[in-house]
Amino acid sequence: MSSTRRRVILFGIALAVVQSVWILAVPPFRASDEFDHVYRAAGVASGQWLLDQPAVDGRGLYVDIPADIVRAASAQCESLDYPGPDNCRPAQVTPEGRWRVATAAGPYNPVFYAVVGTAARPFAGDAALYVMRGVGAALCLVVVLAALAVALSQRPGRWERLGLLVALTPVVTFSTAIPAPNGLEMAAGLLTWCSLLAVARERRPDLVGWYLAAGAAGVALLGSVRMLGPLWLALICLVVLVVGGTGPWRRLWGRHRGGLVLAAGAGTAGVMWGAVWVVVSRWYAVEETGAGRPADLAVLLLRQSFTWVMQLTAAFPFRDVPAPLAVYPTVMVLVVTAVLVAVRRGSPRERCAIVVAVLLAVIVPVALTVVTVDRQGVVWQGRYLSAFVVGIVPLCGHVLDRTRWAPWEGGRLSLIAAVMVAGVYSACIHRVVASEELRGRVDPELDWAHLPPVVLSVAAAAAIVGCAAALLWSGPGRRQWTAPDRPARDERDSAGTRTAV
């Protein structure tokens, strides 16, 4: 078995354990808008793809689903302050015995929901929810492992491999364990990043066909599962072009024109399907709250910027529920160190690309909030950025590998970083389970069967250590530094400024 395949399998097992811990740590229907997504999945599984009847006393559109799912979700739904009665209780009982309830996920693209909802049809109530969580997690796991296989086939060095681990923040893995398309969008973003960079780096011409196929899948998923996907796709393509220029793509066009056309066609078809669905379902027609423009908009945006960073790192089960305070500086130390060192040591193109990526991650939420705050208030959530920023730290890690940063201390530093990530996960899981236990003691209707928080937090930390070991351990007698040098063809190129991708 090849080293890459062994790493991917071991990483997949460990990441599946992390996802399983999240599935067990969050009470049924407790995750952000989870009941909305479960209602949508149950409706799509019964053939209700396009919903068009607005709710009278609740959020979203009406859908007819099995009564047992609504009964199971009602306690958690009614414990929240934003759903209406029609979201938590039936507005009507159909002649077939199904309950008509409102779901805010009514306009969302139905393909993801068709998969998780169909798998859960034989089950009822909480069991149906857990099946949806498991199937959604498996879909995301497959996409993440495809991205990992692409990245590892490039024989990256220590820091890029560590960057892949750091990129999978607690919010990302939490999102992959919930039956909502957000996690699949994040995984697709990582696959798109890895595939496009693999093509641009031109290290493995024998695997170009595989990279194009993986890139087409990533582009199709990223561009269709959620409405902001095409924006993230455009930004990823922009950064990749800044890093590598147009040269690799011109050479690819000359050598693999047919494969490039097929891959571009498949990816474009996925994006077009997403665009068609947005128009048909009127997904863009969001409800206006008439909030009005705040008088201190600049102060609001500054405050929200810090909030978005926290939400991007760790906030569950809802965006306004923070993780333990120590989690945020721990993650920021890893990310900021990677970015600053990469900007300092990178080539002009690499510096420009990283700076552009960071600026876009700041500007896009601010710009979209400025445009929509008058009509909707502040609706942006930091996790929405994950599909884009998930590729920034691995990109920085590649620069650190190429420039041989910390060649002697790297093993010790990467071990410390892996332990920090494991500690972050342990703290997050423990906080979620302990706080939900408290809610269950206050309101017995919200209690649920679960493992003790210590058991789940230790399991999460051990699984993250397993992920790190799969990525970083080279085996006895193996050299730790595996980042390849610039391809020989680039060394022979005598035209203009040459920049390693």
Automatic annotation (TrEMBL):
Region feature (Disordered): 481-501
Keywords, alphabetical: Membrane, Transmembrane, Transmembrane helix
Pfam families reported in the protein's UniProt record: DUF2142
Basic and acidic residues bias locations: 486-495
Source taxon at top rank: Bacteria
InterPro entries for this protein: DUF2142_membrane
Residue ranges crossing the lipid bilayer per the database entry: 130-150, 162-178, 184-200, 207-225, 231-249, 261-280, 325-343, 352-372, 384-401, 413-434, 454-473
Name of the molecule in the record: DUF2142 domain-containing protein
Organism: Nocardioides flavescens
